[in-house]
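As described in the Methods, two query proteins were run sequentially through the folding procedure within a single session, without resetting any intermediate state between them. The first query and its resulting C-alpha cells are shown here.
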Amino acid sequence: MSQELMLKYGCNPNQKPSRIFMQDGSDLPIEVLNGRPGYINFLDAFNSWQLVKELKAATGLPAAASFKHVSPAGAAVAVPMNDTLKKIYFVDDLELSPIATAYARARGADRMSSYGDWVALSEPCDKETALLLKREVSDGIIAPGYTDEALEILKTKRKGTYNVVKIDPAYRPAPVEHKDVFGVTFEQGRNEFKIDNSLLEKIVTEKKDLPEDAKRDLVISLITLKYTQSNSVCYVKDGQAIGIGAGQQSRIHCTRLAGNKADVWFLRQHPKVLALPFRADIRRPDRDNTIDVYISDEYEDVLADGVWQNFFTEKPEPLTREEKKAWLAGMTGVALGSDAFFPFGDNIERARKSGVEYVAEPGGSIRDDNVIETCNKYGMVMAFTGMRLFHH
C-alpha cells in the first residue's frame, strides 16, 4: 500500500492533476491489483464498499452492490433465487455461491443502469462471482480479497485492464471528514449512524404487523439510501433493491422513477417476456435494451417492420396495457424507504401501484397525518425512523 495514488484525470479529462491520498500521511487502505482506476471509479468504490459492509453487518448475509456515478443501481444480500429470477438475470447456466447470488441480484435490479458498473462485495471475490462478472460489462470491483482463481479470471477482462481493488476491511476513517468546493473547505462529522431493526419500532399506522422479512427489506432500503445521492427512495423485495430513485429535486419524482424501475423489474418476469424469441446472436446488453422497449408503450413504434428482425426470429405479440396492469397487480410485499419525509400522500398513492406494503421514512412533515391516513387507506405498515439520510 502507498500514501498516494496518481490518477489519469479527475471527473473529466481536462481536470488535472488528480490523485487520492491520505492527509495524515498514512497509507491508503486500498491496493490496486489490476487496471488503473479513475477518480469516479474510486468515488464509486468507497461509497459502494461502505454500503455492502453495512448491509452485511445489519443482516448477517453476504452483500453486493452495483454502482454508477456515485449512486447504487442495485444492492442486495444473498437470498436464494427462484428459476425465473435466474433466467431474467442471465445466470441460469451458472453455479452461484452466496456472494455471487448477492451480486446477481444487485445487478439484476436495473440491468440497463448497471451496464458498465462498479461492483462492491462484502466478502472475498470467489471463482463463481468472477465467472459471472467476466461476461458482463463492468468497469471495476472492490472487495476485501480475491481467491487466486478469481483474480486470474478478472485479469482477463477488458483486454487485461479491468480495475481490481482490494480494501483493508479493518480500515476505519477519521470521525470528521472534509471536502473542497469552489476553493472552500467543508467539514462535518461522518455519518456513522447505525441502521438496524430498532429504527422500525415507531409504527404510526393502524396496521402494526411487520414481518421479519419486511424488517430486513426496510433496513436494506435505508442502508442503500444512506449511500444514494439525494433526494432518494428505494423499493426492496426479497432482500434486493428493485427500484432506486436518486438525485431528484422532488420527492414524488423519486418515488415515480424508482416505482417505474420496480415495475420493469417485475414485468421482466411476465411469461410473454420470458418467451421472447430472441435471435441466438443477440448479446445480453442488447436483450436488456430490447426487453425494456418491449415492455414500454412504444414497442410497436420502435420495433416496427424492418427493425424487429434485428432482434427476434419472429415478431412477438405485444404486451398490452391491460396485460401489464393485471400482472403488476400481482406484485405484493414490497418495502419502501425514503431518505427524508414524504411531504404528501401522493408518494404513497404511487408506491401502492408497485406493490408497496411496508414503508420507512423519517417523519416530521406538517402533513404527516395525510401520509399516515393514505397508508391506512391501503392497509400499509409505516414506521417513522426519526433519522434523515441525505447524501451529497
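Immediately afterward, the second query was submitted; its sequence and C-alpha cells are:
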Amino acid sequence: MSPQISLDDLAVAALVVGADGTVEAANAAAAELAGQPVARLVGTPVDALLVPAPTRAPSGAVDVKGQELCLHGAEGREVAVVAYSRPRAGEAGGPVSGVVVLRRLEGVDAAGAPTGPSGMEVISTVSHELRSPLTSVKGYASLLLSRWERLSDEQKKAMLEQVHHDADRVTRLVNELLDISRLETGHLQLRFETVVLPVLASSVVDKVAMEYPELDCRIDFAEEFPPVRADPDKVEQVLTNLVENAAKYASLEGMTVSGTVAGDSVSVAVADTGEGIPEVDLPHVFTKFYRREQGRPSGSGLGLWISRGLVEAHGGSLDAHSVVGRGSVFRFTLPLDGHRRARPS
C-alpha cells in the first residue's frame, strides 16, 4: 500500500484553489514564500495573492502554465513567481478546483528589477575581483625579491606604490563583504572623527588616478568648507566607489567632485560627462549586486548598495540623477555633527 502524500511533502510552493477562487489549502513552502502562516493563506481570494489575476478556465478553475505573477505576502512582501496549475475534478461531479504550483522567478524582483546572482555566482565574482589585485601583488613582490639589486630606486618605488594600491583594493573588497552583514543586521559600528572632505576627496581622486592615469577630475570645494564629524574610512569608501564608478561606466574626462553646505549638513557630488544612465536603469543602481551592461562592467555590484547604507548610517542620504547623453550626478549628504544625527547601530 503506497503511503499517502500531503501538500507539505512537496518541495515546491503549492496552493489548492477552489472554483470560487479562494485558497482551500496551502503547504509550508507556500507559506514560507508568502511570509505568512498557512492559516492566513487559506480562505484568501487567489486574485488578492497573485497579481495580475491568474488565467481562469471556463469552469472557473485557475488555469496557468508558466504565467509570471507577483505573489503578495505579509507586510507588503512581494515575490516574483512563475505559476503552473493542474485542474482537479470535484467529487461526484462537483465543482472543479485546481492545484497551483509557484516557483520563485530567479533573477528579478516583483517589480521586474534584477536581483542578485546565485550564491555560486557571487563567490565566482568575488573570487575574480580578489584574484586580479592579488596576482599583481604577488608578481611585483616576486620581482622585487628576485631583482632588487638590478632595479632602480624609481622602479622600486613605482612597484611598491602599485602593491600598496592593490592591497587597498583587496582591503576594500573584504570590508564591503563584511559591511553586507553589518548593514543588514544593524550592527555597523561607526568611528567618528573630524573629516576634512576637500582633503579626503583629493586623496581619493589621486588613488583612483593610479588605476586610471587618464582621469581628469576637478575638485571644487569652497575655501572655508567646514569639517564634519564622520567615520573617515567609511566616507572614503563611499567617495571611492562613486569616483571609480564614474571612471568605469562614464568618462575619464570632465569629472567633478564638489561640495556644498546647506544648514547643518553638507553634500558631496560626483558628476561625470558620460552617456548617462537610462531612466529604466536609474531606480535599480542602488540594488545589491546590480551591474549595468554599459561601460566597462566589473566589480561585485555591491558598491552603491553599501555606499547608500553607509551614508544612511551617518544620518545622511545618497541619490542619483542622470540625463542620457549628458552624464550623471551621484550626491550624498552628511550631517555636520555626526554624533547628533547618525542612525543608531
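The longest helix spans residues 153-185. We note this only descriptively and draw no conclusion about the first query from it.
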